[in-house]
Amino acid sequence: MSDFDPSRRRLLGLGLAGLGALGAGPLLSACASSAGTGSTPTGGGITLQSNLTGAAKSGLEKLVADFNKLGKGTATLNTVATEIYRTQLPTYLSSANPPDLYTWYSGSVANAYSRKNLLLDVSDVWQGLGEYTPAMRNVSTDETGKQIFVPMNNYWWGFFYRKSNFAKWGVQPPKTWAEFLTLCQTLKSKGIPPIGIGLGDTPWVASAWFDYLNIRVNGAPFHRELLAGKQRFDDPKVKAVFAKWSEALPYFDPKGKAYPFQEATTALLAGKTGMFLIGTFLADATAKDVVEDLDFFQFPIIDPAVPVAEEAPTDGLFASAKTANPAATKALLTYAASVEAQEAYVANSSGIILPAHPKAKASDMPLVAKGKAMLAGAAELTQFFNRDSSDALQPTADTALTRFIDKPDQIDAILAEWQKNAEKVFKG
What we know:
The chain is of the alpha/beta class. The protein folds into two domains: 3-155 and 314-360, Periplasmic binding protein-like II (D-Maltodextrin-Binding Protein, domain 2, 3-Layer(aba) Sandwich), CATH 3.40.190.10; 157-311, D-Maltodextrin-Binding Protein, domain 2, CATH 3.40.190. It contains 19 helices and 13 strands. The chain has helices at residues 25-38, 54-68, 82-94, 108-115, 123-126, 134-139, 163-169, 177-189, 205-217, 220-227, 236-248, 261-269, 288-291, 326-336, 339-348, 366-376, 385-388, 394-406, 411-426; strands at residues 3-4, 45-50, 74-79, 101-105, 150-154, 157-162, 195-196, 275-279, 294-297, 309-311, 314-319, 354-355, 380-382. The strands form three sheets. Strands 3-2-4-11-5-12 form a six-stranded mixed sheet. Helix 2 packs antiparallel against helix 15 and helix 9 (205-217) packs across helix 11 (236-248). Residues 1-43 have low confidence and may be disordered.
């Protein structure tokens, strides 16, 4: 399961600004109504509400079909557009007759729902997951100590590019920030917009830039404290992040502010941009032969003294505390956590993800091996802006970061306003 979605995600974690203004209200209500009806218990019937599309959806369909053959319950998969899903998730969970299970992710967002007693306690499921790493257990545990999430996979972010294009342009992946800027200069001189970006209906993509620059300049501990409200967005350390970002701004695709990340992906694959900081979910809707031409490089090192951290969002499933069929719900969660289920999921999806179970085999694609090695070599792992903070804080980032890209000379006012908006979120 990739976000952001989305799978963001990140297709998982996608949000669509101004959705209500586009007349989506009735559609949202219809989705919630459909989900509620689908969760009515009939012979162990349960509903798995999902935002996964493309190859990721195929992988989940395989998982559900295999589970249904076990005779431990009958699961129905209900897929909702990611842009709608994220907006409606609180409504799903708080409704009188909610869907039983959900594709989403671990971390602070899951903890926030658990704090409101909306998530099923699955600690008994975890009693049978002794092979999982302590790190995976930790990201699945809420602040009271109970497990409320079952991880299925994680993935990585990086600068993706087409190998054939880099070869055609005669350029090499950089390792340092200076080398990165030189690469950008070279591509721009060849008439290629160096850096793709998709901010149209997916402004959260800009958060990857903020996350990476902050963990490269100030380190992961400061980044987590900032997103938890223990540091300030108007701190000089944060302003230093934007000073670095300003060095790369001249190389962003100017068209990228008008279209979403999906179109930015299309531009990258078509050779209309040079590279794109994005998660592996870009492969979900990419032809297999094109995937084989994809490669990535690590976000460049800026300060060698700062321990290297990488973004590695963990995706999986949680369940409604109000499920009418807890036995069948936990049976599906148990199956989803198995080696068999995760290997089948990977094989039937794009394959460019890492199964959460330590004994489950990932794809043998060189791209996957490279991503796995990068994460294994990191001193620390972060999730993504809203995963390390909250869905409520994400819009404050969307506003601040898109404004910065448009008007970098207003950074002091932007950071002051961001701090003000963040305080409102932290104070509830």
